[in-house]
């Protein structure tokens, strides 16, 4: 095995393996006894990275054979191209792998002494711009590797625990700074005061923060000396990167960008959004080239040079993304057309946590009922207006259906929960009967109905997975707040005008008085979304929410079919307890289905967390894009 190993910090975390003299390399990955029995995780991470990376760089000749030559050898990777990049999850894991692999190759006589510290992209090495893929490396390996006596069979001495690595690790990123008193912020949206204690916000004007009341509301002063409360999600810290540009849509995924661009239907309409890969950005561009009436969308990843400059097309590098966008507003330079029209999602301000700071009891006289949206477990839901101008959804709670006193106390806590993938609770009306629950209104309605009837065309793989990503991110937030949903399903998610999916009715099932809903033997109990521990022992946890999330994914990929549609509830409980799982929907590939199956592990502790699911779904989205 002829391997050259680098410890470059330019592409981190990275383990670099290269082939000597153009020969095939067999990389044996052993089950080293790392702490906490994590070797399997290391190997699986590396195998996944090898496969994904080779596909990305058109190097497909990788063969993975499981369990080679004994149980303690986990995998063999056979690779016959020049560079092999292996990504480790963290710097610590990378260092452990390098240490072990160096021990394995210390007797090899033909180790290559040069390597490329950067990737091969668009027909050239980013580090040295050589245009031959098999070109000799441009950087010499660590000189300490050359000082070893080749051919010696004497084992290496153990590495002292206090020894510093030969090359210092990159500095840890600074902890994100929270809001501070005295900080200057810029309004991203207009905010008309909802109560007498609120301060009006005017878009693009500056304000000084006087008090951090909570995560959702701050007290601020404007340039005229007026003071009052403002919603924290309407402002951004001054000079805080891209947030001040109208073309920047931070929390927007690929399908939402396409939906927004197509709704504007402008040739050259564009926006910049965060990529599904952390720290990366994408330009989404709508074009009507070729005489198309509806047009099509193109997505361009903003690349970074080794010197930290940004580019969309080669030979046009810029120090900032803003400079890059300004250039391409006047020059196509490799794109289908130049960036002509800014398309922004800031026309719709975000939801606020409540209808004013400290306001949770809403006067029903300020509510106007416009039309009925449907009937749910708790009663009728209507679309209406608050103070004649704010869109709201109003749930009129059927008397006797809810433990009202307990819910009213809980509502004060629920109002403080704010996330872009949760339906915002604005307040309640408890002074009369029936009680009203006032929430954010989402124009595309229930996700289940949207899957069956609301999609205007056949959904793409990316669109379906992004729906699942939205739900996973909302649930990850609830998980971080130690909040259990208890009734997660497509019927309890809503879709807004941009196609964003938001979770609703979290925690409300605890206050239902209907025995048919509370008992697992009842006809209204969400049996088909419940894991064995809930069906048998009514044991709810975030892990039971994970099971339900897997079923929700199945609903998304089956476009709203009923889970276990051929079984009644009794048969379904019996079969699931014996190990039956939902079949793979036609629109779900094996990787998507494996996520579902992982959510349906029989033992709750073996299921992933929502935070882990978010990362898994994001990685899969990156592959699809």
UniProtKB/TrEMBL annotation:
Signal peptide: 1-22
Region Disordered: start-end pairs: 144-180
SH2 domain sequence ranges: 247-343
SUPFAM superfamilies noted in UniProt: PH domain-like, Protein kinase-like (PK-like), SH2 domain, SH3-domain
Annotated ranges, domain SH3: 180-240
Coiled coil region boundaries: none
A GO molecular-function descriptor: ATP binding
InterPro entries, A to Z: Kinase-like_dom_sf (IPR011009), Non-receptor_tyrosine_kinases (IPR050198), PH-like_dom_sf (IPR011993), Prot_kinase_dom (IPR000719), Protein_kinase_ATP_BS (IPR017441), Ser-Thr/Tyr_kinase_cat_dom (IPR001245), SH2 (IPR000980), SH2_dom_sf (IPR036860)
Family statement drawn from the similarity comment of this UniProt entry: Belongs to the protein kinase superfamily. Tyr protein kinase family.
Protein name (Swiss-Prot/TrEMBL): Tyrosine-protein kinase
Species per Swiss-Prot/TrEMBL record: Stegastes partitus (bicolor damselfish)
High-level lineage: Eukaryota, Metazoa, Chordata, Craniata, Vertebrata
Gene: btk
